[in-house]
């Protein structure tokens, strides 16, 4: 794979802006290797345990895998956040003159993320209503209460992302 594309994917996944220097790349490679090893062992052990549980009760095996995967995903997310903060890899350094412009950029980016999140959640809620509760998709998607909920969730997500972006800025 092209090195430029790989660097862009790494920067996007970890939320790193600016230059991906050798120190950051080394630290991310180290963390990625550790995370891969832990995840590999988890998959190996959880698959074996699920297979043992499946013999007696397939429903418990499915619940075990789903709950375990959600828990491991949450732990991975929080460990990535902790690692990036500890090593200060996600800090964006700007001079005082460029600070207001960077805040505006983050504000616009947060609005875009809020709209994207609100629309995605609204569509996913309508799909889940149609699948789980056997409601009509178009009735669910045009429901005023569902639209209001999606708007509120989008705004809340946008505000949270803006706060996260501001916490990463360093004058």
Automatic annotation (TrEMBL):
Pfam families named among the record's database cross-references: DUF3278 (PF11683)
Keywords attached to this entry: Membrane, Transmembrane, Transmembrane helix
InterPro entries in the record: DUF3278
Source superkingdom: Bacteria
Transmembrane portions of the chain: 34-54, 60-85, 106-124, 144-167
Protein transport found in the keyword field: no
Official protein name in the record: DUF3278 domain-containing protein
